Amino acid sequence: MSVRRLAAEQPESFAFTPETMELARWWIAKYPPERKQSAVIPVMWLVQKQEGWVSEPAIKAIAELLGMPVIRVLEVATFYTMFQLAPVGKHHLQVCGTTPCMLRGAEELKKVCKSRIGDKHAVSADGMFSWEEVECVGACVNAPVVAIDDYYHEDLTPDALEALMDKLARGEKIAPGSAAGRITSAPEGGPTVLKDPTLYDGSLAKPIKLPGLPEKV
């Protein structure tokens, strides 16, 4: 794993929004008071959802909220790659580059990101997009996969990814899932087995008699 450091430029301060603080206290309440430090990961995730990334002032605020040394919070932030340590675009793309996605076209998706956004971890000129390459996201059967704002978009082609980015650039919402219309992890084109409804609709069920049960009156 490469060394992860905080961004060179940091904001002067950080403050929890009332909504974030409410959710943070909800998470903290899940643990005994003496174990509230266990909420560091969900609280840090809430901070990232609020700000888009985790800054040094935010790390200090989390440490104060949970009553733990700043270095302990910093260790969490720099260990888990799910936490962004520098500002990201309004929409952040995480391109899976592990073998199944690579074999199914991830390299072409990276080219789209480079041409439209720039180098990895850079933010586009308009502030709309940023991207990075990540390790396996666990959806190999639907490769290649790009997580956009933490939601998976699967079976992508370069054109499909371009179309998603076009929609986001216009301020439109995009729906996660398969660009090929795949249903969960079924084969492309739909299921090929267990297609007879009688196999699962209960119509073939027959009454059974269990030993030891009293006869009905």
Structural class: alpha/beta
The tally of helices reads: 7
Q: Gyration radius, to the nearest Å?
A: 23 Å
Q: For the largest sheet, list the strands in their spatial order.
A: 2-1-3-4-5
Number of strands: 5
The backbone outline, from C-alpha atoms, is flat
Outline the structure in words.
The chain has 217 residues and is of the alpha/beta class. It is built from seven helices and five strands; from the N terminus they run ααααβααβββαβ. The chain is 33% helix and 10% strand. A five-stranded mixed sheet has the order 2-1-3-4-5, with helices on one face. β3 (146-148) and β4 (151-154) form a beta hairpin. α1 packs antiparallel against α2, α2 runs antiparallel to α3 and α3 packs across α4. The relative contact order is 0.09.
Q: Which structural traits does this protein have?
A:
217 residues, alpha/beta, five-stranded mixed sheet, 33% helix, 10% strand, flat
